Amino acid sequence: MKIWYQTMTTYRYDPVWDEYGKGLEEQCKRAARPDTEVHVTGVPLFGKDLDKYKYIMYYHKNQCVNNMLKAEKEGYDVFVLGCSEDPALTEGRGLISIPVVGISQANMYVAGMMGELFTIVTSPRNLAEMYRQLVRLYGLESKYLRGNYALDVPEEEVAKSLKDPLPLAKEFKEVAKRAVADGASVIIPIPAFIYNLFYRTEKLTNLDGATVLDPVAVAVKVGEMFADLKKLGMEASRMYQVYSYPGKEIRDEILKKYAPTFKIEL
Questions:
Q1: pLDDT value of residue 266
Q2: Is residue 256 part of a domain?
Q3: 203-240, pLDDT tens digit by residue?
Q4: Which of 31, 171, 229, 260 is 20 to 30 Å from 180 at the Cα level?
Q5: Of 95, 19, 40, 12, nearest to 223 (Cα)?
Q6: Residue range of the domain that includes 116
Q7: pTM beyond 0.85, yes or no
Q8: Is 203 domain-assigned?
Q9: Alpha carbon distance 84, 219 (integer Å)
Q10: 54-83, pLDDT tens digit by residue?
Q11: Is residue 213 part of a domain?
Q12: Between 262 and 101, residue with greater pLDDT
């Protein structure tokens, strides 16, 4: 089995993300079955303030859509969206014939099965509102413990953590402990760089009795399951306005028709 794991950082394009990308590869390898190959890659461009403005993600995710088409063409069995905003998840499921997994959707549903209430430990605080919207979109509000479980971490501190993860890992652990004290029985640390800190320091999976998910591992395992189910004839619904797939010929014709509009003229 071959899984394409898409981070929306510029890993493989900018060396500043090398340590983070290698950490993702380790997490994927640890989670995947021996016969599963996971290819981790980023995108060429990264717009500033993605956590603040939705329109930036609109353009940013088009890079991801291009890689979906590439993954399908190159024979991958699953495409995993490793960005916690689940960008282009709905579009992707109707765009390509292979399963598409969103890291946040996968973790939220798994968390709902593993405990009574889950919460999200995140950074920066702007993302907490975005996750609240995703929880509502996925119909999981009754399983979600909403609270202020976020840190505003400057970019320079994130950069330092790539080489020395312990100080920042301790800060996030304190936030997670507060969430558990408030009633969370499952912790989802996203974006994935947060659990990457836990993984590189103590491989944290349990905190005061609460389960701490490795979001990357969960996404990979759900990806394997989706691929297995597809072999058994079960895949995302192809009903119109759900994840309807027109087939490669019609899809390529549509993409060709709209190709001239994917230009930004300022």
A1: 64
A2: no
A3: 999 999 999 999 999 999 999 999 999 999 999 999 99
A4: 31
A5: 40
A6: 2-221
A7: yes
A8: yes
A9: 11
A10: 999 988 999 999 999 999 999 999 999 999
A11: yes
A12: 101
Q: What is the pLDDT of residues 120-152, one digit of tens each?
A: 999 988 899 999 999 999 999 999 999 999 999
DSSP character string of 73-135:
HTT-SEEEE-STT-TTHHHHHHH-SS-EEEHHHHHHHHHHHH-S-EEEEBSSTHHHHHHHHHH
- Rounded to an integer, what distance in angstroms lies between the CA atom of residue 81 and that of residue 263? 24
Residue 206 lies in a domain: yes
Question: What does the mean pLDDT of the chain come to?
Answer: 94
Q: Which contacts of 51-58 are long-range, i.e. CB under 8 A and separated by 24 or more positions?
A: 51/124, 51/126, 51/127, 51/130, 52/126, 57/85, 57/87
What is the number of domains present in the chain?
1
Enter the tokens of residue 171. Answer: 């800060």
Cα–Cα distance measured from residue 180 to residue 95, given in angstroms and rounded to the nearest whole number = 39
- Dist. CA 18–CA 162, nearest whole Å: 9
Chain position carrying tokens 């991958």: 76
Tell which residue, 118, 127, 125, has the closest CA to residue 179: 118
Task: Give the start-end residues of each E strand in 171-223.
Answer: 186-189, 206-207, 210-212
Q: Which two tokens stand for residue 31?
A: 């989670």
- Listed range (123-132, 164-173, 210-219, 255-264) with the worst mean pLDDT: 255-264
